[in-house]
Amino acid sequence: MPGLLTTASVLMCPHGGTVQIVSSNTRVTAGGDPLARSTDTFIIAGCPFTIPPAEPSPCVQVQWVQTAEESQTMGDFNLTEASVGLCIAATQAPQGPVTISATQPLVSGM
Fold first, then answer.
1. Which member of 13, 16, 38, 100 lies 3.0 to 4.6 Å from 87 by CB, making a disulfide possible if both were Cys?
2. Which of 22, 8, 13 is nearest to 88 (CA)?
3. SS3 letters for 7-42?
4. Do the domain assignments include residue 19?
């Protein structure tokens, strides 16, 4: 089973921007960090993406299209290493899938 994502998980946009997870989950943790849920806020910083000829179009947030099927925290579906998220520009244009680089190995879910 895939590991559950936490606020300490490492996520990136397809262009190398860093995803910061801001969670309102204060109750359920894994490895000491709150579990990430589909309703949390995923802010992307440092995306260098530019549409030629030099019009900035950086990724700014992640929108989740596939979450854990059965695992929930505080009434919201959790996110796992198998979850699918799209990085979105400020214009709401999809920019590509989020990359999940690392998460905690202790707790998994479906």
1. 13
2. 13
3. CCCEEECCCCCEEEEECCCCCCEECCEEECECCCEE
4. yes
Confidence tier at 53 by pLDDT (50, 70, 90): confident
Predicted pLDDT of residue 2: 83
Span 73-96, average pLDDT:
94
Domain that residue 29 falls in: 10-99
27 in a domain, yes or no?
yes
Neighbours of 35 (CB within 10 A): 28
pLDDT band at 108 (very low <50, low <70, confident <90, very high): low
% of the chain beyond a pLDDT of 90:
67
Residue 5 lies in a domain: no
For residue 54 the two structure tokens come to 């030099």
Amino acid at 100: I
